[in-house]
Amino acid sequence: MESIVPHISVDRRLSLGPLEAFLRLKAGLGRDLPQDHVRTLKQGLHAARRTSQKRAKRISSLKTRLGELERTRDEERRMLHYLLADAFERRGPWVTGVRIDGRVYGRATRHTSPRLREFFEAFPQASRGRVLEPGSLEGAMTLELARRAREVVGLEGRPENVERAEFLKGLFGVENATFHTTDLEEDDLSSYGTFDAVFCCGILYHLARPRRFVQRLASVSPNLYLDTQYARPEWDLTEREGLTGWVREEDPEDPQSGLSPTAFWPTLDELHRLLSESGYTRIETIALLPDNRHGPRVHLAASRQD
């Protein structure tokens, strides 16, 4: 026997007339439907329409409320940025830039540094370990180190930089970083304890006596990440602390300069010799940047056996 296929036509608005017609198909599915069933269907549909209207009103109300919350949030964000800009300006001028919520405060940053990545790759034990950062400046890198290390100690020669570092520490709620004002030319570093690794960036080439400083670093940690500039062999070289290098004039009034009137840059070969004579038995060149615009630069990872 050939089956009877019903022909269905549905109005997209689902009004009562077409819906009732839908139930009265040629196949006879709705032809003998009892009137009380039809009445129940109509009542249910009417109630559903009322529920849909209530839902639409509720959705409209929620959208309105959401718009109000977004406007409030935007206003609070504008106020936050105003307060941040004021706080940074009052503590300026800054040497470093800090990015917060897509905006840079302090000094505009010019590039992204690979040094943090290189440091933790060279010394995995520094993660969840104790890290020393001599020359911590305004604390921006210190706080980044603190995101992975158990504890970070930052040493800085200028009190105003330590004040800025403490401001950033409070701003970001960092509890595992401490800052100290000290003269790195004179401090023997022993009062801070021992460390799993030292993160030493941009400070050695500001020092008048780099040998003494590197030897002191070796006495408090077996691992040293060093980012520094060095002298070329063809420059006007001289001798200092038994090393061959170049003497550079420094301006202690310049916030990006050292505290001594001169700094001594060993040549690259002499820098390797300095590390070896300080007890480091493994010295790895991570990056060699001879054409750096401020002078030849190198990133080194050095370790010694205890």
Strand coverage percent: 15-25%
N- to C-terminal distance: 95 Å
The name of the CATH architecture of the largest domain is 3-Layer(aba) Sandwich
Q: How many strands appear in the DSSP assignment?
A: 12
Average pLDDT for all residues:
85
Order of helices and strands: HHEEHEHEHEEHEEEEHEE
Over all CA atoms, what is the radius of gyration?
35 Å
> What is the level 1 CATH name of the largest domain?
Alpha Beta
Number of domains: 2
Low-confidence stretches: 1-31
- Quick one: biggest sheet? 7 strands, mixed
Structural class: alpha/beta
Shape: elongated
Assign the CATH topology of the largest domain: Rossmann fold
Number of helices: 7
The strands making up the biggest β-sheet line up spatially as 5-4-3-6-7-12-11
Helix content: 25-40%
CATH superfamily of the largest domain: Vaccinia Virus protein VP39
Q: What's this, in brief?
A:
The chain is of the alpha/beta class and 306 residues long. Helices cover 37% and strands 22% of the residues.
Describe the structure.
This protein is α/β, with parallel strands linked by helices. It has 2 domains: 16-22 and 32-72; 112-303, Rossmann fold. It is 37% helix and 22% strand. It is built from 7 helices and 12 strands. It has helices at 16-23, 35-90, 115-122, 140-146, 159-172, 210-220, 268-277; strands at residues 97-100, 103-106, 130-134, 151-156, 177-181, 197-201, 223-229, 238-240, 243-249, 262-266, 282-289, 297-303. The chain has a 7-stranded mixed beta sheet, with helices on both faces. The longest helix is centred in the N-terminal third of the chain and has 56 residues, at 35-90. The radius of gyration is 35 Å and the shape is elongated. Mean pLDDT is 85; it is low at 1-31.
